[in-house]
Specification:
alpha+beta, 4 helices, 3-stranded antiparallel β-sheet, globular, binds nickel (II) ion, 5-stranded antiparallel β-sheet
């Protein structure tokens, strides 16, 4: 495993659609090591999600999760890899919460997301996933899925006036959201 370099806004990989992963590649050590490295990089950066385009790789692959010791008041989310996903909104009005992105360091903004989604994908072993996901995990999945389509959270903000630097956000806007994993935690 190795920690990978996270690319920042301006890198073309963040604005290009990613390519599907050949499911047969999931059986290779190369892909399994890449998944482990994405998880390690996400943890190292303090994120709850990381998509392959964020390390400059145009693959439809992301990891996400929130471990118990970092979850604060949030429910832990098992760490997993998601391959070749399709994400569909379930019924429910979009909800605004704070988000950040490891590729847009230092900024937070209010982003509307669907409260629940249906995730169709493969897991890291190539097994099919078909799940309803809700709450904070649904927000993370929507954020990471966007990365596979060249979309970042700034594009999803209904109103850019909530955009804030982390320090100012913590001072003026986010006092109820300080603990890791709470609203406002950088998503990835
Ligand atoms: Ni992100």
């Amino acid at each position: 495993m190795a920690t990978l370099e996270i690319v920042r806004l301006g890198h073309p990989a963040l604005r290009s659609p990613a390519e599907p992963v050949d499911p047969e590649r999931l059986a290779t050590a190369e892909l399994q090591e890449l998944i482990d490295s994405l998880v390690e990089t996400m943890r190292d950066a303090g994120g709850v999600g990381l998509a392959a385009p964020q390390v400059g790789l145009p693959l439809q692959l992301f990891v996400y999760g929130l471990e118990a010791d970092e979850a604060g008041d949030e429910d832990p989310i098992p760490v997993r890899a998601v391959v070749n996903p399709m994400v569909e909104p379930e019924a429910g009005e979009p909800v605004q919460e704070w988000e950040g992105c490891l590729s847009i360091p230092g900024l937070r903004g209010l982003v509307p997301r669907f409260p629940a989604v249906r995730l169709h994908a493969l897991d890291r072993y190539g097994d099919r996933v078909d799940e309803r996901i809700e709450g904070f995990a649904a927000r993370v999945v929507q954020h990471e899925f966007d990365h596979l389509n060249g979309v970042v959270f700034l594009d999803r903000m209904g109103d850019l006036r909530s955009l804030a630097f982390e320090e100012e956000w913590a001072r003026y806007l986010g006092e109820e959201a300080e603990e890791p994993g709470g609203v406002g935690e950088p998503v990835g």
